[in-house]
């Protein structure tokens, strides 16, 4: 048996690596989209200042940013790493508390199952309702509302996964097909009900290129998929005791 | 069916475990908050950390601006 401390530290380390590699994915496939979106944003704001006409204080509009673009590109790795560590820690707690409820004798399968559940609940369900947006998309006045609805979709996503698992276990008495159907129905019904209740938000400007928008969104989805994939497989390897045992047996 | 009890690698549930687990969740959520939402109120860095991690926030799917 592992102690909670050992399970937690493994989660933090795996999370750090998963976050760093997700950052690399985001740097290669996401940063060009962010740059393109910022270029559009700046073109828009310049056009805006021209509209005003009375250019009494143009210097104020061109204020020096707190962090340069290069700084933000490096900060990307800081953000994904810290986020990875946080997710890794939460993952370790979830693994510790839920392990006995997962009906598998294999710790690696348990870790992979949890990661799949986390990805669906925390990434996929929010993504489908409120796809992430690049800079230049979104009205700053509605940020609080968008943040709250985003957090709600995270909670609903996790609830939907739980509903799917619960219904699938209940339906299992009627056979294998019923077990699968129960899982899908529990998940989908919860998600669809939530989607209908939650407000619709679409703040994409008419002029924003759709190709760039979706390239950014898929880069964002890919970044998070990388993070969860590595978290699941990394933790599966990290909790597996067999390599150590076989080494001991071989000695 | 193999006996699953043998391969379960987690400690038994106890009030102490739950307390430590809850504390860990709090710390991890604070960390995620710092990346995703803080605008200097918790980090005491003004908007510096917020701006530094701006691209990460967008690419991790958190609403930003
Ligand atoms: Zn932003």
TrEMBL record, chain A:
Keywords on record: Membrane, Transmembrane, Transmembrane helix
Residue spans crossing the bilayer: 7-29, 74-97, 109-128, 148-168, 180-198, 218-238
UniProt KW Repeat keyword: no
Zinc among keywords: no
Name used for this protein in its record: Cobalt transporter CbtA
UniProtKB/TrEMBL annotation, chain B:
Pfam families xref list: CbtB (PF09489)
InterPro entries in the record: CbtB_put (IPR012667)
Bilayer-spanning residue ranges: 17-37
UniProt-recorded name of the protein: CbtB-domain containing protein
Keywords recorded for this protein, A-Z: Membrane, Transmembrane, Transmembrane helix
